[in-house]
């Protein structure tokens, strides 16, 4: 079983920065992908950033050039550096890790509890 614990959210002024962290614990054989999603009130959950196990990244259009996803494999931790924040970035941010089952024929997705990011003056 794998558990994800998120941290780093909070209140920030427009133009400011935050760094989210997501620490994974448990048995991890091989990561298929990891990423960050967000959901604002009245909106559907959307992709923020995603990284495959071999390091390929993709970002939501609204955050390209401002957000950066990274990972520390030694600490089983995923990060999201968020710069130039604006009020439209206000949402609950969820960490996601998709882990291969043994045999690489299927995978299972794990989700963090979510962390609130509020951008307001």
Topology:
Blueprint: E1 2-7, E2 10-12, E3 18-26, E4 31-39, E5 46-52, E6 57-59, E7 67-72, E8 77-82, E9 91-100, E10 107-111, E11 115-119
Parallel strand pairs: 2-11
Antiparallel strand pairs: 1-3, 3-8, 4-5, 4-9, 5-6, 7-8, 9-10, 9-11
Index terms:
mainly beta; 7-stranded mixed sheet; elongated
How far apart the termini lie comes to 41 Å
Total helical elements = 0
State the shape. elongated
Q: Note the quaternary state here.
A: single chain
Spell out the helices and strands N to C. EEEEEEEEEEE
pLDDT averaged residue by residue: 95
Q: Please estimate the helix content.
A: under 10%
User: Based on helices, strands and strand pairing, what is the structural class?
Assistant: mainly beta
Uncertain residue segments: none
**Largest sheet composition:** 7 strands, mixed
What is the β-strand count?
A: 11
What this model shows, in words?
- By secondary structure, the protein is an all-beta fold.
- The protein is 0% helix and 57% strand.
- The protein contains no helices and eleven strands.
- The mean pLDDT is 95.
Question: How would you sum up this structure in a few lines?
Answer:
The chain has 121 residues and is mainly beta. The chain is 0% helix and 57% strand.
